[in-house]
Amino acid sequence: MVVVVVLVVVVLVVVVVVVVVVVLVVLVDGAIVVEGAEVVVSATPVVGEAIEVTSGSDGARAPAPSLAGIDAVQALASSAVAAATAVIVVTRRAYTTADRSALVAPTGGGRQRLRRVAEGRGTTGRAVDRARIEGVIAGWRCAVCGATVDIATVAPWRCPRADADDPYHVLHLVEQGVEPGVEPDVEPGAEHGADDDPEPGGGGSTLAELVASGSDIGDVDPFVLYGPRLAWWAFARANGMTAAACETLTSDVVGDFRITPFERSELLSNEIGANVWVKDETGNVAGSHKARHLASILLHLRAAELLGLTAHRPPLAIASCGNAALAAATLARRLEWPLDVYVPTWMDDTVGDRLEGLGARVQRCERRPDDPPGDPAMLRFREARDAGAIPFTVQGPENALCLDGGRTIGWELADQAAIVGVDLDRVVIQVGGGAFAACMGAGLGPGVRLDTVQAEGCAPLAAAWERATMVDRPARYWPHVMRPWHAPHSVADGILDDETYDWIADMDVMAESGGVPVVAAESDIVRAHELATAAGYRVSPTGAAGLAGVLTVADDLRAHENVAVVMSGVAR
Fold first, then answer.
1. Packing angle between helix 435-444 and helix 407-420, nearest 10 degrees?
2. What pTM, to 2 d.p., does this model score?
C-alpha cells in the first residue's frame, strides 16, 4: 500500500512539473532537455519536425523568434524542476540502463524517443535491437513545411512547395511501423491495387536470420535483402508491381551490389585505445557508398518505365567531380540512360577521362559574371534540373530518393554487429553533403550514437549546429542556420561541400542518438589516411576521414568502447 501511495505521489509531482515547464516553454517557443541531473532550456528540440513556415495572408516566411527571454525562463524552469530532479532520475532508470541518455519534451519527436526508451529500443550506446519496430514506407513529408507526397507518386524528387524563391525544403521518408514478421494494417500498394502476393526470397530478412539458416551471405544483394523496406519498392507495389517483379527488377538493375566487409582492426584499435570496427566500402560498386544512394533513384525510374508511368527518358544530371559522379556514370551506363555531369574547371583530367569512358557527358562549369554565390557546377546543375533533367544526385533537397537506398549501409552494419555479438557504442561518419550520415543514422536507429566529422577547412555542419542552438525549430530558418563555408580546403577533397545539404537529417540523427559534430584538424586527416593505409585499406583521405574524427575524440573514448567507422572512397 505504501508503495502504491508513493507511486501516486511521484506521478502527481511529475505531472505538475511537466505542466509548469510546458507553459514556460510555450512562452519562449523552446523545449526542455533533461540530461542527467541538469535541466536546460534548449531551442533545438527536433530539427526536422514538420511545422508551419508562413504567416499572414502573403505567405511570408515567419520572422525568427525572440531569444531575449530564454535565459530568464531557463533559470525559472530550473527552479521549478529542481524539486523533482530525483523523481525524474528514478523514472529514467526505470526506462533505460544505457550509459547516457536524454529525454526530450514536449515535442512529438521527444515523446517518440521516450516511447522507444520505454520499449527498450532507444538505449543509447547499445547495438540496435533487431526486435524493434521496422517501418514500411508510407510516403514523404517535407521536414520544413510539412507538405506530404503519396508513396505512389512518380518522381517524388522535391517538396512540391520548393521553388526558385524558396528552395529550402526537403522530403523525408514517412514509415508505417509494423512488427517484424507481422503484416501491416495496410500493405503498401493495397489501396492502389497491388497484387497480394508474398514477398519472395530473402526480401525483408536480416543477415542474422540468413546466417542462422545456413545461407552464404557472400552473394547477398542488400537491395534484395532489404528491398521491401525501401521507398522505391513501396512505390512499385503501390502501382501494381508484384513483389516477385520487384526482386527481378532489383537483380537486373543493381544485381552486383554485395554485403561489404565488417571487421575489427587490430592495428587501429591499438592505435586509438578502443575497439575500432571498420566497414569497408572500397570494394562496393564504383568504389564507395555513393552508388547505394543512387540505386534507389534508378530503380524508381526503371519501375516507372515498366509500369507505363513515364513515356520518355530525360537526361540524368549530377554536380560532382568525385565518387558520386563515378557512381552515377557507372549506374547510368547499365540502362544506357544519358547523364550530364557538371564539374568545376579544376577537376582532374583523369577523373574526366574516366567519366567520359563510362559514357557521361562532362560539363565543365566556369563562374559567370552574373552568378550568385555558390558552386558554379551546382548552379548549372540546378539550371538543368529546372529545364527538365532528372536530379541523379546524393543531396536530399534535390532528390529525396537518395535518402532511401543509402539506409542499406546502416541496416547492414547493425546486422553484422549483431552476428559477431558486438554492441556498438558509436559510429563516426565523414560528412560532405550529409546524405551518408543521414542514412547511416536512419538505418542504425537512435540506439547507437552517431558523430559526424568534417575538416577544419570546411565545417559548415558544426557551424550550423552552434547557430541552431539559438532558435527553436531551426529548419524554418534554413538560410540563416546553414550558411556556405568560405574557401573550403582539405586533403579530404571529397567532403568539401560548402554547404551540408542534408543538415536537418544529420542534426536529427545526432540529437536522437546523443551524437555531436566533430571538427578534425588537417593533421588528424592526414594521420588517419596513413593509419588506414597501414591497416590494409586501399582508401583515399576522404574515405578515411571518419577515422580522423575518432583520432580527434580519442581521449574521450573508453578502453572497452566499440567504435565503428566506414572506409568509403577507394584510392585511385
1. 40
2. 0.76
Q: Is 76 exposed, middle or buried (0-12, 13-18, 19+ CB in 10 A)?
A: middle
Beta strands in 292-425 (DSSP E): 316-319, 339-344, 361-365, 390-391
For residues 159 and 145, give the distance between their C-alpha atoms in angstroms, rounded to a whole number: 9
> Per residue in 161-220, pLDDT tens?
999 999 999 999 999 854 333 333 434 444 444 444 555 444 555 677 777 787 777 789
What confidence tens digit (pLDDT) does each residue in 363-393 have? 999 999 999 887 899 999 999 999 999 999 9
Rounded CA separation 259/403 (Å) = 19
Report d(CA 333, CA 357) in Å as an integer: 10
Please say whether the beta carbons of 398 and 158 come within 8 A.
yes
- Look at residues 321, 264, 330 and name the one whose alpha carbon lies nearest to residue 293: 330
Cβ atoms of residues 196 and 190 within 8 Å: yes
d(CA 515, CA 499): 20
Q: Are strands 148-150 and 426-430 parallel, antiparallel or unpaired?
A: unpaired
Cell of 505: 537529417
Contact present, 548 and 525 (Cβ < 8 Å): yes
What residues pair up with 262 in beta bridges, in sequence order? Answer: 279
